[in-house]
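ENTRY TYPE: protein
WANTED: fold as tokens:
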Amino acid sequence: MLPWERARNWHDEHTTEPFESLLAWHMAHGLVFNTPQVFLLAHEVHYSPDTNSMTYDLPPNAWFVELAASVGHANPVREFLRVATRPQEWAIWHRRNSFQPHAYPWAKLARRVGLGGTTSVSSVAERGIA
């Protein structure tokens, strides 16, 4: 099964929104990344660490990975950080069927997955990662 099929199956089991609607929204307003090893949907939000909440009312400071799946040894977190159109202060996602946001500082997460302390698009391009 391909990663996008795994993601669609999980989405269909846990929500009532059609997968195609979520995909179309991200194609218009966010990031869609699909390879034979990794699939993910993400978009920019404003994250408030004080309340652990996300909003669209303020300028974005975070990426929210709404749906991701992988096969084999692919690391969807690393791939997301590698292909995001611009780094933000935070990377956020829900873990293990929880709908509670889990936020991680972008630079710390980049170091953890072997991308160094990448914190800007220019440093990503200079390292040949983009």
In short: DSSP finds five helices and six strands in the chain. The first helix runs from residue 3 to 14. The beta strands are 31-34, 38-48, 53-55, 62-70, 90-93, 102-105. The mean pLDDT is 86.
